[in-house]
Structures are given as C-alpha cells and as structure tokens.
Design goal:
This protein has three helices and six strands. It is α+β, with helices and mostly antiparallel strands. The chain is elongated and about 75 Å long.
Length: 137
C-alpha cells in the first residue's frame, strides 16, 4: 500500500513539472528589442512588408543595430536547422516574447487542486466502505 502511495505522489510531481510551461505565454513587449530578447529562446515578430503583414516565429533570436534575426520556425516552433532569417527593425510592428502568465498559473493550480480533491474523496469513500461495509441491505 505504501509503495502505491509513493508511486501516485511521484506521478503527480511529474505531471506538475510537465505542465509547468503552461505558466508562460507569448506577450507583446514595449521594451527595446535588445532588452526584450535578452535570454529569450523564442520570439514572435509581426512584420509589415510590401506584401502586407506577416508573422514570423524565431528561435534563438539575436539583435544587431538594424535588424532582428534567428532560426525561422513554423507556428509550433519546429525549426529548420542551419538556416537563419534576418528582419529589418524598421519593418517590425510587434515583438512578442515568453513571459510568466498569472492567469495560466492560477488556472493550472485550480485544476490540479480540484483533481486532487476528487481523488482524495474517492479514496476516502472507498476506505469508509471497506471499513464499515456497504450501506445497502
């Protein structure tokens, strides 16, 4: 019984660690690109060019005096290895970087708490039925 309990706790910790990225989302920033991209692994640019507006996903972004560059990726951040893309700063309309999201964290905490409560109540009910027997005649 004790081993089963430890296994459940370990599974709960692993699931919480797995869902931890839900606590971050891409958010628009007003910071200068050099400051905003410092330490970032991913960024989303909204760029205006002659063809109109387009969205570019970049991994490992970098900034020079006149451009932002990085490894181009699709919308799920599956990146093409070995290629790079550079975009002039003058055409960047919006820059989004990953930031901590309080709402996502609170929602995740609420879901985990509700699930734990359901599991606890089911275990308590099962334990009481086992100890006192079924209430049916």
């Amino acid at each position: 019984m004790r081993t089963y309990s430890r296994t459940r706790r370990l599974m709960a910790v692993v699931l919480l660690a797995w869902f931890q990225p839900a606590c971050t989302t891409f958010q628009t920033t007003d910071l200068a690109p050099q400051e905003a991209l410092e330490g970032q692994e991913q960024a989303i640019l909204t760029v205006a060019d002659s063809a109109g507006e387009r969205i570019i996903h970049l991994a490992n972004p970098w900034v020079t005096a006149d451009s932002i560059g990085g490894t181009p990726c699709d919308q799920h951040f599956t990146c093409s290895a070995g290629s790079t893309l550079s975009v002039p700063l003058s055409s960047v309309q919006r820059l989004e970087v990953k930031r901590y999201d309080k709402k996502a964290t609170m929602l995740l905490g609420g879901v985990v708490l509700a699930a734990a409560l359901v599991v606890f109540m089911a275990a308590l009910n099962s334990s009481l039925e086992e100890a006192w027997g079924s209430s049916q005649p």
